[in-house]
Amino acid sequence: MHWLGLGSWRWLLILEGIPAIAAGAFTYFLLPSRPDEANFLSLREKVWIAAELEKEREQKQNEPPISALGALSNRRVWHLAIVGFTQAIGAYSMIFWMPQEVKSLSRAYSNTMVGFLVMIPHIVGLLSMVLISRSSDQRLERRFHVAVPLIIGGIAFVSLSAFHSPVFSVALLSLVAMGVYSFFGPYFSMPSEFLTGFSAASGIALITSVANLGGFAGPYTVGVISRRTGSLYGGLAWAGVSLFISAGLALLLPKEAPRMRKERRSGIMTNTGRESYE
Length: 278
Prior knowledge:
Blueprint: H1 8-30, H2 43-61, H3 68-72, H4 75-103, H5 111-139, H6 143-159, H7 166-182, H8 184-189, H9 197-229, H10 232-251, H11 258-266, H12 270-277
Helix pairs in contact: 4-5, 4-7, 4-9, 4-10, 5-7, 6-7, 6-10, 9-10
């Protein structure tokens, strides 16, 4: 398509962008900002959630405050940023190079067929993201829910060179997608465990900015390694190693934020409150 004198690749981006713009508009009008605006909650549920949020706010106030500038120099913030950076190397390498990997499995695959096959890992990643996030919230545990999926994804990345069957390759790519997408829920729950207010805004912004640099470093490095080795698998193996590094760094994070330790000692963990409510 070359409508209005624009190239087909430009129309691809335009058509992909239109749903995002529409979703943004719908989100503004439909997404509740506070529990009392959520029509899908009962009055009792709204009251319980508001009480839990207020309790959390009071507990954070009892801890030494971290300023917005202090968050930018906080060691734990930078630790999380590097975890995100190394994860993004693997995640963006998967996103950018997966179509070429699938295309290489058979010369009979058209670009349309490649597109349908690439959907499979992303669907698996979507389902895994929900399940792992749910498990992390139920157990109030973050580190292992971040690290274990990354290790599984890293193993799958490294194993791609051993299998050239379309079925096994798509299955391994699905495990990679499961690993990199399951990461996000537990990972982005960590900063708010010790940051609040302006410090949370600046700290999360720094974490996200540093992590997104991995989105440039990953695909670029995979391309360089693949060009020098003559095989895409060498570059993808490096992406797998980056996921192992991210998992290792995640396991080195403190077991719990100070607030979480206080809650656990005092027996007022969120799950306990939920059970009492129910």
